[in-house]
Every structure is written in C-alpha cells, then in structure tokens.
Amino acid sequence: MFLGALCGATFLELILNRSNQSLTPLESTQQALDFIHSDYLTSEQLALLNELTINGFRQHINPGFLEYRKSVTSGGGYAAVEWRATSLNTLADTRGNEYIDCLGGYGIFSVGHCNPTVVDAVEQQLHKQPLHSQELLDPLRALLAQTLAGLAPGELNYCFFGNSGTESVEAALKLAKVYQAPNGKFSFIATNGAFHGKSLGALSATAKPVFREPFQPLVPGFHHVDFGDIDDMRAKVAECAARGEGIAAIILEPIQGEGGVILPPDDYLPAVRALCDEIGALLILDEVQTGMGRTGKMFACEHYGVEPDILCLAKALGGGVMPISATIASKRIFSVLFDNPFLHTTTFGGNPMACAAALATINVLLRDDLAQQAEIKGEFLLRGLQECAKRYPQLIAEARGMGFLQALEFRDNETGYAFASEMFRRGVLVAGTLNNARTVRIEPPLTLTLEQCQQVLEHVEHVLAKLSSMVEHVSVTETSTSMLH
Ligand SMILES: *Cc1c(COP(=O)(O)O)cnc(C)c1O
Known about the structure:
Aspartate Aminotransferase, domain 2; 7-stranded mixed sheet; 4-stranded mixed sheet; 14 strands; 47% helix; binds pyridoxal-5'-phosphate; PyrdxlP-dep_Trfase_major; Aminotrans_3_PPA_site
C-alpha cells in the first residue's frame, strides 16, 4: 500500500511538516508500518525516508557510522540508504541507484538477495508457526540438524543452533571447555589476524588489538600465534606444556576473512590437525564466513582434507533471509552435554523460521551447485583482478582469494578507500571502510553471473585507470612542490 493511500494526504503532510522528533512513538510506528507496507514510494516519500534514516543514525544509533562509509562521501555528501533488493545480485537505494553487490553482506548473501526458495519457505513457516513453544519438540530443528550432519565432514553429527557467528563460536569454546575440563586442559590457541566475533568469549579468540584493548582482561588462557606458521604454533604449545598448561582447543578460520582473505600454505591445516591429535587438543574450525559454498566447496576445510572436531557456521546459513548459526560436533565431544542439555541454551536459537531458511538455503546450494559456480566464476573474476593487479602495480600489491572469497590488497589505505568509493559511485558495492580499506574484500552472491563478473572487471579497470592517473598527477605535484623548498 502506498504511504499516501494508507493514511491520506493529511498524515503524510503531518510527517513531512514536522520534525521526526515531534512524532509520538505511536505515530512513528505508524509511519514505519506505512513504509514497510509500501511497495513503491514517491520521490517525496523517498526523500523523507532518506532524511529520517540519516537523522536516526546520527541521533539515535551512532553518528560514527555515518563517517566511515564510502556511501557518505562518494555521492556528494549524502549517505546512501538502502531500499530493496532488485534481483539476486543487485540492490537499490532510496535514490533509485542500483548496485551490483560484490560485498554480499560480508558473505551472508551466498544464495543471492531474496532468493525465492528461501523467502517462500520462511513465508510459509511464518504463517504456520514463526517461533517454537519452547516445550514441544520442534520438527524443523531436527530436520536441519539431520541435514547438516549429512553435509558436514566426517563424524560431525550433533548441532547446536544459535543466532549469530559469535554465538556459534561462543558455543564451540564452551563445548571445548566442558569436554576438556576432566582432562585438565583449559587453554586455547588462536591466530593473529583472526576474527571470531566480539562477545567476551569470542573476542578472546579474535586478535585485532583495537577491538580487544578496552575490554581487558578477557577470558584467560588464550594465546595467539602467527596464522599459517605451524612452527610458531608448535613453539607456543611447547611453551604452554613447559608451564603445565594444557591446550583445550585450537581455533582457526581455514581462510582468514576479516583479516583480509589470508590463505594459509596448503599443508598448514593438515599440520594443525596432526598437532591437535598429538597433544589431545580439539580443532575448532570457524567457517562462519568460508562455509556454505563460499570458497568453491561446501566447507573450506574440504580443500585441505581436514576434519575439525567442532565446526562453526553462520552468515550464509540463513540464506540472507534469517539469522541462524550452527555449532556442529561429533558425538564423542557433544555427548558431554547429553546429561544436561540446558548447560548451554538460547531462546531463539534454531527457531522454526530460521531453520526453514537454512533448510531452503542448503536446498538451493545443492540444487544449483553454487559451490561449483563459486569455483568457476570465482576463478574467472580472480584472474581478471590479478591481471589488473599486474597492470597497476603502483596501486595494487596483490589480488588473491578462493572461490568467491577474494581481496584486492592496495599499497595503502587511502588508495583502497578511493577505489571502494569510486566503485560505489559506478554502482558496484565492495567492502572497504574509511579506516580499513587497504585490503578491499570482494564477496558477491555465488549467483553472480559471468556477465556481471565481466561488468565488475570493466568497472575495476576504469577506476584503476582513473586512480592511477591521479597518483601520477599527485606525485608530479609533490615533486614540483618539494622543488620549491
Ligand atoms: C562474521 C564472523 C563472525 C561473527 O559472526 P556474527 O554473525 O557477526 O556474530 C565469526 N567468525 C567469522 C570467521 C566471521 O567471519
């Protein structure tokens, strides 16, 4: 329903003529419902929605968010406000600009935006029973767990469901602790550059100093070693052993995502697996970002022939429609929770709508073999990016990735940010924020077409040519300026 049609010109005029702060909470909820019910908005209404959103962020969410976005500075000082998905691989803002999504919500939109199979399943479940009674057994949770057990490598047969990647990591850490407590092993090894979430437990495994510093002391017993360096890990294990400190688990992303798409040497994960077996530590693989087909296999660990003891999934698991996470472990490990399943629980984890979304998502991933699509189209895109990197070595240090998890590493943060902004202006959404753009991630929906890959490459080429001519210009100016002194 149109905003105007629903409430008449009077309500629209009312909200257009009054600052939003003077709306009562009842009026502002009515206004929001009007927007939600609207399929199309007039340009006046779109302008209003734009203004309300920017003011809302500035005054009630966090003005800091406005500063860091390329969508703020690039379009002449406005922040782009999203309005709707326009196809599996594109979205539109409130000004009618369309973007090819090469950010993919940092990996959540693997089956595309509003994938009809996922939306339909969630819609059906929404009308049947959106959330569970908390007492009777909920069928979709059982069906999803069974499906994931069949999909996950090896003996990973038992699932705990949560609502976010952070929760899946939190559950994995707690499960490892419960399992290892009788063995007197309480410590964890994680890696530098790792990202596992920001709750106090998950943050203890996350490495980035700025996220950790204000929250010290974190959970004790976490040690960080260099990612990809098995000798560093062995040295840390020996150092802990010398102090009588047992390692409960080693936690890793098979490929570091937030850390800038860092691929380990091919023999790294098998070596970590062997080390875990040697010292009786559990291997937790955080595939929150790399899982569900992203890297060209259903799970990235399959590239390396390694089976973890605990596997963490989230992001794409809900098909870009519902938030859901899973922590999957073998019976040997998970059975420590059999006596008391209430030792670790969450009200909304594994709810019927989320499970419906995950089941439909897995159906689409398998039906369309999106993992293989990611491998094939990912290789095409990456090869194009690597050619660009070769042509513009003064701008780009490296283009790397696996499947549709890719990154362009620039020579410096400013160049990366300028690249991300220019791409945005040209209608391609890539990662890269003001203070974190040296490595720009490219994580499109796995449904991105070859034609769209080609279009993206053409935009990349244009932007790099432009930036490169600017760099030459700047260095000439700098030289001439320095000659004046
Ligand atoms: C995003 C991410 C998380 C955190 O997931 P949230 O859903 O944001 O809580 C954890 N681990 C990895 C590897 C991630 O990429």
